[in-house]
Design a protein that fits this description.
Blueprint lengths: L1 E8 L3 H12 L5 E4 L8 H4 L30 H14 L6 E2 L4 E7 L4 E6 L4 E9 L21 E4 L13 E5 L3 H10 L5 E5 L6 E2 L8 H7 L2 H16 L1 H7 L1 H18 L3 H6 L12 E2 L3 H5 L4 E4 L5 E4 L3 E4 L4 E3 L2 E4 L14 E2 L6 H4 L18 E3 L12 H21 L5 E3 L1 H15 L3 H4 L21 H8 L7 E3 L1
Helix pairs in contact: 1-12, 7-8, 12-15
Length: about 475
């Protein structure tokens, strides 16, 4: 029988952080379950041209695993190397089960453990279960009439097909979000034609990237220097919450900066109007690029707005809503992820057969974005309302692990078998989150974004400073929990 004290679903940074923290706490009886045939998560899966992080690399790293980065905003290949660095440094490879796609999980209240059923590796059992599958792991491809008729190639940016040579081809990119903003400038000089289908424009700010010299990289290898740089970047970025939540003049100042970039890089007023959002900056994800706008002004790039959107596909290409037919060889779906309502892709059955899908039917919710009543010993890394729009998600993940380890240690210390959050504690926390959310640009900025669930609740983001979240997770509150 495949039985462990802890199971971790997912092997990206969330899973790696959980694994290393368990090891540091002296807990070695655990296993990571990875659905793919490789270890590593987002930065091993997303290999599309131009892929890079949009948080400075020294901050977008695990606090216990410093690294000599080559540039301020690391590209995918270096992030992949960093992932390998963490895996090798902490000997995690021997603790992962690859191609273990989770089909469903069930709580056994008699045995006080979780049964995790996988497609090809059988059933695993564990006292504690940590879901670290991540919010950006379920790609969304829109259903468009005629998709099955198209004779060219199609793939999502999440599953870029490197066997296909797009050079000299006629390419369509559907979407204009974070991945599109990176792909488009990278491939535009290499293709014959590039058609960009934009549903809504995004606000962009300049990308303050720089390469580190040999001496600077040497400094990054010194833990005190690395820690100092991390905290300098952290506090610089933390001030952004003032604009997102507390100060309209501050956010309007940031929006003016974005508008100046647009005016400087897109001189044509007609094109500029197509690229000007009608919502307050920050309501949707703010994108960083110095090259996206210039790419759109190239002679071989055509921008199609919502009014010229995709009506259907046929054998040779795209039929638009304004009556055009566009021949293309390749369609790239840069259409994001199911990051709110569908963030947990498998059925979860808790105490008394309570179903997670029913509990989250109105909108996903969790105490500290991490635990739920009726689901003992279950923890969600990057669960509801743990996203952070202004700094590194890894800071939040490490904060969550403070709470998760406290839960596990407390159960062990008391000689008990399970812990679950009290319903009233979860309700109080969730009410606080959505009360505070009313003051943020994510709720009142005049847009509908992937931050929101179908209900209209902002589910992806934490409505405050990241150090406030860290303070909430720093110590377990036993009174908020039921032990058995």
């Amino acid at each position: 029988m495949q039985t462990y004290q802890v199971l971790i679903i997912g092997s990206g940074f969330g899973g790696q952080c959980a694994a290393v923290n368990l090891l540091k706490a002296g807990i070695e009886d655990f296993r990571l379950l990875e659905r793919r045939d490789f270890f590593g998560g987002t930065w091993c899966q997303n290999t599309y041209p131009g892929a890079a992080v949009d948080v400075p690399s020294p901050l977008y790293s695990l606090s216990f695993a410093p690294y000599r980065w080559s540039q301020m905003f690391a590209e995918q290949a270096e992030l992949h190397r960093y992932t390998e660095h963490v895996i090798e440094q902490f000997n995690l490879r021997e603790r992962v089960e690859l191609q273990a796609n989770v089909e469903r999980v069930e709580w056994d209240d008699t045995e006080k453990r979780w049964a995790v059923h996988t497609a090809s590796k059988g059933t695993f059992y564990a006292q504690f279960l940590i879901n670290a599958s991540g919010p950006l792991s379920q790609p969304v491809i829109p259903q468009i009439p005629g998709q099955d008729r198209f004779q060219g190639r199609t793939f999502h940016t999440n599953n870029w097909d490197h066997s296909y040579d797009y050079r000299g081809k006629r390419v369509a990119i559907v979407g204009s979000g974070a991945s599109a903003v990176q792909v488009i400038p990278t491939i535009a000089p290499q293709v014959e034609q590039l058609h960009v289908f934009q549903r809504t424009p995004h606000w962009l700010l300049p990308r303050a990237d720089r390469r580190f010299g040999a001496f600077q990289r040497w400094l990054l290898g010194l833990k005190p220097a690395y820690k100092l740089l991390r905290w300098l970047i952290y506090w610089q970025f933390e001030t952004r919450v003032i604009a997102f939540k507390y100060s309209r003049p501050a956010i309007h100042m940031v929006q003016r900066q974005a508008m100046r970039l647009l005016e400087r890089q897109v001189p044509d007023p007609v094109m500029r109007a197509k690229l000007t959002p009608d919502f307050t900056i920050g309501c949707k994800r703010v994108l960083l690029s110095n090259t996206y706008y210039p790419a759109l002004t190239r002679a071989n790039v055509m921008l199609h707005t919502r009014e010229q959107g995709i009506a259907s596909l046929d054998e040779s290409g795209i039929n638009t809503t304004d009556g055009q037919h566009i021949d293309v060889d390749l369609i790239v779906w840069s259409t994001g992820y199911n990051a709110t309502d569908g963030v947990i892709s498998y059925p979860v059955s808790g105490k008394n057969a309570v179903q997670l899908r029913d509990v989250w039917a109105e909108y996903p919710r969790a105490y500290l974005g991490t635990s739920l009543p009726d689901f003992p010993n279950l923890f969600f890394i990057t669960g509801p309302n743990t996203g952070i729009g202004h700094t590194s998600a890894l800071f939040i993940i490490e904060s969550q692990m403070n709470y998760i380890l406290d839960c596990i240690r407390t159960v062990q210390a008391k000689g008990l078998r399970s812990i679950e959050v009290r319903p009233e504690a979860e309700r109080t926390y969730t009410a606080m989150i959505h009360r505070e959310m009313q003051r943020t640009v994510w709720k009142s900025g005049g847009c509908h974004s992937w931050y929101q669930s179908k209900s209209g609740h902002v589910i992806a983001m934490f409505p405050g400073f990241s150090f406030s979240y860290h303070r909430l997770t720093r110590a377990l509150k036993p009174a908020d929990h039921i032990f058995s």
